[in-house]
Amino acid sequence: MSSDEMRRRADAFRSTGVTYHRYRPGYPDDAVGWALPDGARDVLELGAGTGRLTDALLERGLTVTAVDPSASMLAVLAARHPDVSVVEARAEATGLADASFDAIVVGQAWHWIDPAAGSAEAARLLRPRGTIAMLWNQRVPEDGWQAAFEAVQPDPRGVDLISRHDADARFPFGAREEFRTAWERTIPAEDYVQLYTTQSPFLIASPEEQARRLATWRSLLRAHAVDRVTQRYATTVWRFQLPG
Ligand SMILES: C[S@@+](CC[C@H](N)C(=O)[O-])C[C@H]1O[C@@H](n2cnc3c(N)ncnc32)[C@H](O)[C@@H]1O
């Protein structure tokens, strides 16, 4: 994918706050726990969106600053969590003060961030021995109608996009550690359709193409008489630590 296409897809989230929040999943507790260093207090969340990951940070009693370039996504987050400090900015240039955070977390968003500029900014914002962790939820569709449903709208997995340019990232951090976990959720069939409308390939498609995909998805569900869907997910977390 070209960098222009990446930017177009990243910017697609500018208009989708409420729908996004309603249908996207949160993050499993073991992954969130692993993403954070012991004793963390001040946490910066980059690409925070509507706050799906923020919820889990607040439940742990952390003080969260949430950064995202989309006013529409941040409006949902701010309405749900008025005490969180929100900053409308790109992760590459947040305008926040040096060495202000014990940890940075990035849910489903690091692949939208320029790796060199984003890493340099993250290193500036972290305190010594601070950590940055990137989390990705990946759908694991079952063989059969779920795989056919997924194939209507191919969506490169975030963790694969980042692997592709990882070599240029020049993280000013230590070695990468990785954690993986698996989980599932069961949702109404219509929510399953709507989930796919929150993805960047849908958001940037023409209205005609969007209507075609919706019709194909609904006919697949009808053909298989599905009214609730159990969705399997694999969550990957990458964690890096600044030197002391
Ligand atoms: C897939 S959403 C993830 C939102 C949230 N973290 C979650 O897990 O639900 C990706 C988010 O990255 C944001 N984004 C896109 N480009 C960005 C950038 N350069 N810096 C920070 N965030 C960015 C989008 O506005 C969007 O809110």
Automatic annotation (TrEMBL):
Gene3D superfamilies: Vaccinia Virus protein VP39. It comes from the Bacteria. One of its GO terms (biological process) is methylation. Pfam families: Methyltransf_11. Keywords: Methyltransferase, Transferase. The keyword Chloroplast does not apply. CDD domains: AdoMet_MTases. Coiled coil: none annotated. The keyword Methyltransferase applies. Residues 44-133 form the Methyltransferase type domain. One of its GO terms (molecular function) is S-adenosylmethionine-dependent methyltransferase activity. Belongs to the methyltransferase superfamily. PANTHER family: METHYLTRANSF_11 DOMAIN-CONTAINING PROTEIN (PTHR44942), METHYLTRANSFERASE TYPE 11 DOMAIN-CONTAINING PROTEIN (PTHR44942:SF4). This is Methyltransferase domain-containing protein. It comes from Tessaracoccus defluvii. The lineage of its organism: Bacteria, Bacillati, Actinomycetota, Actinomycetes, Propionibacteriales.
